[in-house]
Amino acid sequence: DQQVKQNSPSLSVQEGRISILNCDYTNSMFDYFLWYKKYPAEGPTFLISISSIKDKNEDGRFTVFLNKSAKHLSLHIVPSQPGDSAVYFCAASLSGNTPLVFGKGTRLSVIA
Amino acid sequence: GAVVSQHPSRVICKSGTSVKIECRSLDFQATTMFWYRQFPKKSLMLMATSNEGSKATYEQGVEKDKFLINHASLTLSTLTVTSAHPEDSSFYICSVAPGARGNEQFFGPGTRLTVL
Q1: CB contacts < 8 Å between A and B, how many?
Q2: For B39-93, what is each residue's pLDDT tens digit?
Q3: Cα distance from A30 to chain B (closest Cα, Å)?
Q4: Cβ pair A93:B32 closer than 8 A
Q5: Inter-chain touch B93–A34, beta carbons under 8 Å
Q6: Mean pLDDT of A6-17
Q7: How far are the Cα atoms of A24, A35, A55, A90, B85 from residue A70, in angstroms, in the given order?
Q8: Residue B94 in contact with residue B101, Cβ under 8 Å?
Q9: How far A14 CA lies from chain B's nearest CA (Å)?
């Protein structure tokens, strides 16, 4: 049973437009959510995170929105750039120093 | 964030041999490190939690006698794949969690293991 779901395996967006990547989770005990970016044959790179006590966190072009009642979060990238093309993983964790539970990832392609 | 290295980055070995993968936390003393594996086009799956000075905690379905983890110091954890088989071919990644800001984990660059 997958606790973190990314239902879109891929997404194509034109350069300059907004990219919206979605993530759903089932475990209501998760209280910290993270987005990672990953290139092939490399480890994931941390992008942005959000605590369950917030509904929005913004860092430059990246904004994460959290809807706890819907158990849904999304990552917005605006404006999208070709260098953003990668696989994006949504991850969730319980409180404390606990392992992350990852979604299957969404491959974002930003077309120039 | 924390800087994490892994060695080797890529290894090819014959079936039946053992392979050791090192994970080093370069700028942070990590009492806990995590080991993940990723199959092609799949998510990252937690294999085990490596605890400095004590036994690792393995996830269900991960054989502890096959995937030996040693966390002998605060900066080094090793994963040894014993008697490797072709189905062990995968991308192995370690991470550390400094804990300074929530639950962010910082990952090493990964090790691509190919067992012939």
Answers
A1: 60
A2: 877 788 999 998 888 889 999 999 999 999 998 888 999 999 999 999 999 999 9
A3: 11
A4: no
A5: no
A6: 96
A7: 8, 18, 12, 16, 43
A8: no
A9: 24
